Task: inverse folding
């Protein structure tokens, strides 16, 4: 058994959630949830509290009983027996309705990785950055870069995500004012309790109103969020009396769909990735 370098006080090595994210297990926030739910062991000991630091060369990390190969920082890369730092892949997909944002599903439903070419999935643990529920459509980034995923999803970086939302009824200025002012939403915590957190839309405006007495009136909204909670847009709109009929994410920071059709995927080039990184720096 490797010698334990666990520490809650002295920051030796790498934060456990970062090491896991660098190994392609998910975004850093997802890895934190894996840890706090008791699914992770370091050198045979269950770790369910943070902070925790590990040595990628000497420590053994397991997720659900499976040993994880941790990439090694460049300064430690002289150890040829240790896995080297991985090359990163960035895939932008246009998620259609009915595809779920997960990497696997016991019910056999189509998931977002099914949209990524098999050649890009070979020998790589790719994961989605953030989530879109099954009924929502639009842009989603798939990667194995835990650091960038963390920056794109953590509230402190405030990366803008833009949505087009079709609602039932004719939205009023009063309803939009309530959405801009914000409201508290209740969310379940990993320990089974519930927490209340304020949600607000950075911007919300009416793109078009559709007056149709036969089919029902509708409103197309443009919504921008910089911090997302679970099904936040749907829940906020429901609170002001607007039912979502269609919801599409049309932009992630500087990225837009362009000619990317629903169900399609494209490998991002260096310029697009640099734009994403620049957006996280300008928002920090």
Result:
């Amino acid at each position: 058994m490797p010698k334990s370098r666990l520490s809650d006080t002295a920051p030796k090595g790498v934060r456990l959630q970062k090491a896991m994210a660098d190994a392609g297990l998910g975004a850093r926030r997802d890895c934190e949830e894996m840890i706090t739910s008791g699914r992770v062991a370091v050198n045979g000991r269950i770790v369910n509290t943070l902070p925790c630091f590990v040595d990628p060369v000497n420590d053994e990390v397991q997720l659900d009983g499976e040993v994880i190969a941790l990439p090694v920082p460049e300064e430690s890369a002289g150890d040829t027996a240790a896995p080297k730092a991985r090359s990163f892949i960035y895939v932008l997909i246009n998620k259609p309705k009915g595809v779920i944002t997960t990497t696997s599903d016991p019910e056999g439903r189509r998931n977002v990785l099914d949209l990524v070419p098999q050649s890009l999935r070979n020998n790589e643990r790719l994961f989605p950055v953030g989530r879109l529920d099954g009924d929502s459509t639009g842009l989603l980034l798939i990667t194995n870069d835990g650091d960038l995923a963390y920056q794109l999803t953590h509230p402190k970086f405030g990366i803008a995500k833009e949505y087009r939302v079709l609602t039932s009824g004719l939205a009023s200025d009063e309803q939009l004012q309530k959405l801009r002012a914000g409201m508290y939403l209740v969310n379940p915590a990993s320990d089974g309790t519930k927490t209340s957190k304020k949600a607000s839309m950075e911007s919300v405006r009416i793109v078009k109103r559709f007056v149709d007495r036969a089919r029902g009136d509708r409103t197309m909204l443009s919504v921008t969020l910089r911090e997302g909670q679970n099904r936040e847009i749907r829940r906020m709109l429901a609170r002001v009396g607007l039912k979502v009929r269609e919801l599409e994410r049309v932009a992630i920071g500087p990225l837009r769909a362009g000619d990317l059709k629903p169900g399609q995927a494209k490998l991002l080039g260096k310029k697009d990735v640099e734009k994403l990184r620049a957006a996280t720096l300008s928002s920090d």
